[in-house]
Design brief:
The protein folds into 2 domains: 16-89, Chemotaxis receptor methyltransferase CheR, N-terminal domain (Chemotaxis Receptor Methyltransferase Cher, domain 1), CATH 1.10.155; 100-289, 3-Layer(aba) Sandwich (Rossmann fold), CATH 3.40.50. The protein is 43% helix and 16% strand. The chain has helices at residues 16-19, 23-37, 46-60, 65-74, 78-89, 100-117, 134-145, 163-171, 184-190, 202-205, 218-224, 241-254; strands spanning 123-127, 154-160, 173-174, 191-194, 197-200, 208-212, 229-232, 260-263, 276-281, 284-289. A 7-stranded mixed sheet has the order 6-2-1-7-8-10-9. It has a 3-stranded antiparallel sheet with strand order 3-5-4. A hairpin with a 2-residue loop joins strand 4 (191-194) and strand 5. Helix 2 (23-37) packs parallel to helix 4 and helix 6 (100-117) packs across helix 7 (134-145).
């Protein structure tokens, strides 16, 4: 048996151990990434961050994490490198009909309530951190099945920090794993089988506007959060409490009174001071922006 410790080797063949990731370099990079993207790597996630970065360093011909820090912080083309990093940090684990209780609550309770409160206004939805697009497509399918798309204009904007994820979403073609929770009759009704996978019905896909957005960009979040309903699920779990509070504050700052915020099952705002109140609607938990609250610090 070989007792030599395993080295973490990326697709490039680079070893994170061989490069050496000092505590100082880790702290600098970790804090810079958290400040820019919201994603936070605690001390026990040092190896995980190293593994995510090794192929990027290899592509740049770098042998130092500290040099990569300076590249992100000071280089004239830093924005391009931040884009590559966002793609590397993306967690592409999503699928249709994820947390169906929330999707049904939108169609059965939230949308009808909003239609009653705002009789002439369109229903505006923002799917934040949409990954490869399964979430906003699921929302439109639910609204269509409830007959609501025929009653009122629905506007959906879907955003992600990763351009690679958005490109997948714009293609609108999905493999079998994306359908592990979607009922087969809905798959057959809203998708067409092709050699490359299942293509979403253009009548659904064309209703979604895809855009790149960073959740720690206050101005971008406030603009997108002018929606009546925001789905921001399974991304804040990777953020520090301070970053979560900042994102919640930005969303509240843009959202109209009685706006609805859906988070993932493992995410919560209850331990933080925010402008949202937790409510149970249609068997799902949702955060509601209190009337008259326009975001702190404005």
């Amino acid at each position: 048996m070989n007792d030599e410790p395993r080295r973490r080797v990326g697709a490039s063949g680079y070893s994170a151990d061989a490069l050496g990731f000092s505590e100082a370099a880790f702290t600098l990079l970790r804090d810079l990434i958290a400040q820019r993207t919201g994603s936070y790597f605690s001390d026990d996630k040092r190896d995980l961050l190293a593994d995510k970065l090794t192929d990027l360093l290899a592509a740049l011909g770098m042998t130092s994490y500290l040099d990569y820090y300076y590249l992100l912080r000071y280089d004239a083309e830093a924005e391009r490198h931040w884009g590559a990093l966002a793609d590397r940090l993306a967690v592409p684990e999503t699928y249709f009909w994820r947390q169906p209780d929330q999707i049904r609550a939108l169609a059965d309770v939230v949308a009808p309530q909003l239609f009653a409160m705002r009789p002439t206004a369109p229903l505006r939805i923002w799917s934040a951190a949409c990954c490869s697009g399964e979430e906003p497509i699921s929302l439109l399918i639910a609204l269509a099945e409830a007959g609501l798309l025929d009653r009122r204009r629905v506007s959906i904007v879907a955003s992600d920090a990763s351009e690679a994820m958005l490109e997948r979403a714009r293609r609108g073609v999905y493999g079998e794993r994306s359908f592990r929770s979607l009922p087969a009759d809905l798959r057959d009704r809203y998708f067409r089988r092709e050699a490359a996978g299942w293509r979403v019905d253009p009548r659904v896909h064309e209703q979604i506007r895809w855009t790149k957005a960073n959740l720690v960009d206050d101005a971008a979040v406030r603009e997108l959060a002018t929606a009546d309903v925001v789905f921001c699920r399974n991304v804040l779990i990777y953020f520090s409490d301070d970053a979560v509070a900042r994102v919640a504050r930005s969303i509240a700052g843009g959202m109209p009174d009685h706006g609805y915020l859906f988070l993932g099952a493992s995410e919560s705002l209850t331990r933080l001071a925010t402008e949202f109140e937790l409510a149970e609607l249609g068997g799902a938990f949702v955060y509601v922006k209190a009337a008259g609250v326009h975001g702190r610090g404005e």
